Amino acid sequence: MIKKILIANRGEIAVRIVRACQESNIESVAIYADAERHALHVKKATEAYNIGPDPVAGYLNAHRIVNLAVASGCDALHPGYGFLSENPELAHICKRRGIRFIGPSADVIRNMGNKIEARRSMQAAGVPVVPGSDASLAGVAEAVAVAANIGYPVMLKATSGGGGRGIRRCNSETELLRYYERVLSEARKAFGSAEIFLEKCIERPRHIEVQILADQQGNVVQLFERDCSIQRRHQKLIEIAPSPQLTDAQRSTIGDYAVRAAQAVGYQNAGTVEFLMDENQQFYFMEMNTRLQVEHTVTESITGIDIVREQIRIADGQALSFKQDEIKRRGFAMQFRINAEDPKNDFLPSFGRITRYFAPGGPGVRTDTAIFTGYAIPPYYDSMCAKITVWALDWEQLLSRARRALHDTGVYGVKTTIPYYLEVLKVDSFRAGRFNTSFVEDHPELVNYKTSRPARELAAVAAAVIAAHAGY
Prior knowledge:
The protein is an alpha+beta fold. It folds into 3 domains: 4-102, Rossmann fold (3-Layer(aba) Sandwich), CATH 3.40.50; 131-200, 2-Layer Sandwich (Dna Ligase, domain 1); 206-455, D-amino Acid Aminotransferase, Chain A, domain 1. Helix content is 35%, strand content 24%. It has helices spanning 11-23, 40-44, 62-71, 88-96, 106-113, 115-125, 140-150, 173-191, 248-264, 296-303, 307-315, 395-408, 418-424, 428-431, 439-442, 453-468; strands spanning 4-7, 27-32, 47-50, 76-78, 100-101, 154-158, 167-170, 196-200, 206-214, 220-232, 235-241, 269-277, 283-289, 332-339, 341-342, 348-349, 352-353, 356-358, 365-369, 376-377, 384-392, 410-412. The strands form 6 sheets. It has an 8-stranded antiparallel sheet with strand order 13-12-9-10-11-14-21-19, sandwiched between helices. A 5-stranded parallel sheet has the order 3-2-1-4-5, sandwiched between helices. Helix 4 runs antiparallel to helix 5 (106-113) and helix 7 crosses helix 8. It is globular. The N and C termini lie far apart (48 Å). The mean pLDDT is 94.
């Protein structure tokens, strides 16, 4: 059995994995750059090792990380999300060095990371895909021809893309000609591959994804869907499980598609199959994420299943702890990504020291974070500093509990997206469970909130107290 796991990540996801290890009586090994020697994941892990002064390069050096796993006596490695989590080279090196990679195989990661290969696999499995090019585009002339055939608007996308990068919407041939070289350049810089493809733009879609788990014995289950439609510039802000926008029949259909997709590619471990649902209620495969997702907490809340624990069990060769008909959903859950950003200033990152921090609590509230009072949010990483997940038996109670939990949360010293989310909860269409990926753009007025006087005063007092004790 797995006895010791190296966590090739940082922040709240590293803390989350440490906790899963603790509950399974497994030792954990953290890694950290100089800038994070006092980070929470470093304090909580069984052991911790410095990976150098560069705040990013150490987390991206697959050979060095696996060497450290071997040297520290680990028999498994968990990549978390971001960094090298979807890098097939890391999975390959782990296998070669006898370290169990807690994720799918290198071949699956590579094939699903290539959007064209993923489309082909889904088409062969009978999973609907968005109309578009059948291969990477040979040049701008082919792009123009494909776009003329399927009709505008279209989306130019990096074949090896992800995370909202290397994407441009083109509403006309003029825009297609203007953006083609730009997307090629972005693809080359971000993903090391100057290959792009073209898809029909599904206007005002719902973004629905399905969590799957698959073991080494061939068992595949789906843990219901999450609605990720509330997003900004292709970056998710709020996630909900299950989607308040689906009927039971639609829920069954999209769940079957996800299982079929996983079976078609021989998937193992945890993954997510993402879909777009158009205004005619038709589903289209978008991509498969071959890792744990930020928003896995909402699925855990409605099913009671510890997804990270199951990941470790699967990597250990054990069968899933349950069958499909044993998985039940109960209530609704919503996750808010608390980002250190200023919504009033075009969501500009707000890095700095947290002068005071209060976590929310009470029934149905879960907080995943690595911040604490006095923690300095470094400028080198993603701006997310916490995730608040709220669960309730019904939708109306969820909305009330979400508002209460956000009001309970105090993060001072930096700007955050908390007041913005409180405005989202007031919008009638959101409260009615009717929204799509254009929600943020359709409601620019939500950034016009007023900062409460007590909050400003408390932040000022906290800053003064810390400054007064700085010399002690």
